[in-house]
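Handoff note, outgoing to incoming analyst
You'll be picking up this chain. Sequence as last confirmed:
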Amino acid sequence: MKETKALRVAYQLKRTLRYFTKRDFSVHSESVAEHLFALHYLALYFQPLEDPDYKLDMERIHQIITFHDFGEMLHGDIPYHLKTKEHEAQERKDAKIIFNSLPVFLRKIAKDNWKDYLERRSKEAQFICALDKIEPLFELLDPVSERSLKRLKHSYGKDFDKKFRATEHFPIMRRFVEVISQDMLARKIFWEN
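Most recent structure output, in case you need it:
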């Protein structure tokens, strides 16, 4: 947990607001952009550990991270355990609307990287999928944020299973899932343990 807590230090930037803006930090909230920041940050940490030969393309990784959640812009983020086939179809439809509204230069880049993430075609997309599944573990290592697990009815079994499958080919991320999940389970912060 020592390394996890050290990684969590940069998460304070997600709570550092600009323009003298205030936010009620007694209630857990996180924008998709804040989530993307965390993914970019964690990619810098995990990439050399999971890919010591540096075969993964970091530029591609950062592009996939940037565009993978664009489908959530119009109707918001739906937690995975509440997301239906209809929500998924709406996200795909919304993503196309968003991509078509981008500057011409970015449209293909955005759409191609988003599609790669959805289809997990590349090793980079698989890496981001695993990272996307473990990032909430870091976000939720906060007394206010962790209450969202019960509020949103996250159970240990479903939560761990999804993360375990996503990290199948990434042993370092898998180990973080095991350690952090056991810590969370011991602290009884899941809706159902």
